[in-house]
Design a protein that fits this description.
The protein is an all-alpha fold. The protein contains two helices and no strands.
């Protein structure tokens, strides 16, 4: 083996080792990012479930019967006994 071949072999060996280290680092980064993605998706699912519950609660609270009951109980409002039509 000549000196030139030995130098070429050494350079190629260093390149292979550097490439292997880079593959390991990138694999670790991909695993870390995948974990972050799964956590973000779980949080999104939880927020979506909470949003659905809040929409259901809002529709229940804004139902006509509930509004009428709250007006009578908390605000002491009552429907008028006679209704008069006013012409403009």
């Amino acid at each position: 083996m000549t000196v030139r071949e030995a130098i070429l072999f050494g350079v190629l060996l260093i390149a292979i080792v550097a490439s292997g280290i880079q593959v390991a680092l990138v694999s670790h980064e991909v695993r870390r990012l995948h974990g972050e993605l799964e956590a973000a998706q779980r949080a999104q699912d939880e927020h979506l479930a909470e949003y659905s519950r809040l929409l259901l609660e809002r529709s229940a609270l804004s139902a006509y019967q509930n509004v009428e009951r709250l007006a009578e109980e908390k605000l002491a409002m009552e429907f008028p006994r006679t209704v008069e039509r006013i012409e403009p």
